[in-house]
Amino acid sequence: MGGGGSSTRRVTFEADENENITVVKGVRLSDSVIDRMKEPSSPSGRPQSQHRPASGTVNDEELKKRIAEELALERARRDAEAQKRRLFGKLLERERISSNEHLTRAILRERAATEEERQKAQRFAKQLEEKDRELKKHDAYYKEQLARLEERSAQFYKVTTEQYQKAADEVSARFK
């Protein structure tokens, strides 16, 4: 059974030597189909007409009809299963596409955020370098100013010390 395929098969019916069993060639039947065929009522729920001879043989036409019904039911069941699988496959594909799109958007957002953080870090690094250069300039300026002030202070100290010494010598000379 091709599961919904449209290929045709040749099926032959034969009676065995005892005329009790009909042999179907070219068709594979599952145990459940064979069990259903043995049941006294048809799969559709309506009772079969009892055209069986007393010897227990089955009418060929009835058996052919029953097999055809079973084959049609089996084909319909497989077609329904195939349709369900196709539908489920489509749903899975849509879900996969949706999750891939969501993942792609999340990755792009993360990349954009990472790039923004990298640019912000570069700006802060440049600002820090600028502040560092400015601080070094100020440091050099203040050190220069401090050196000048220390030099002036030393000069004032020297002049003041000389003037004090001179004034002390003068006072000492006057009172001697």
TrEMBL record:
Its main location: mitochondrion. The keyword Mitochondrion applies. It holds the Pfam family MIC19_MIC25. Keywords: Disulfide bond, Lipoprotein, Membrane, Mitochondrion, Mitochondrion inner membrane, Myristate. GO terms for cellular component: MICOS complex. Residues 28-62 are annotated as: Disordered. It comes from the Eukaryota. It is found in: Mitochondrion inner membrane. It is a lipid-anchor. GO terms for biological process: inner mitochondrial membrane organization. Residues 41-58 have a biased composition (Polar residues). This is MIC19 protein.
